[in-house]
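Please go through the protein record below and see whether the fold suits the sequence. Record follows.
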Amino acid sequence: MTINDLIERLVTLVTSVVEDLRMETADGSAARAPVVIAGMVGPPRSATEQRPPFIVVRPMNGSDDQDDSRCTVQMILETHGEDATAVWDQCVLIQRLRAALTANRTQGPFHMDLPLTWTIFENQPQPIWAASITTTWIIPQAEWLEQD
């Protein structure tokens, strides 16, 4: 099992949690569920490329020691709203994801260690609103090879 496997499992979980939500879109089209993206989102290359709402699920860092291996995963939540009440969309996403992640702490061979942390960023580039959720996962250890 690899870190990619963990990210794919989390994308599947997060997608199931938000698929029934309808949130304001950045391009003014009909409200829709946030799109869940594995990895990174680069700068838009065209007017039709993905805009908020979306959730990015990405590995941030990790560690290996004698006892276990860990991977820190960050979820970036971006929504769109013209006024300060748009922060409530962030709260809805955070609450749904907190509930799902803490109820499903084991994803195959991966186990989420507590605490789960979240942040709604103080300086928001309105009309885009951003928050993050950070989790740490115990992951299968790599096989150690003995040197002769």
Observations:
- The first helix runs from residue 3 to 18.
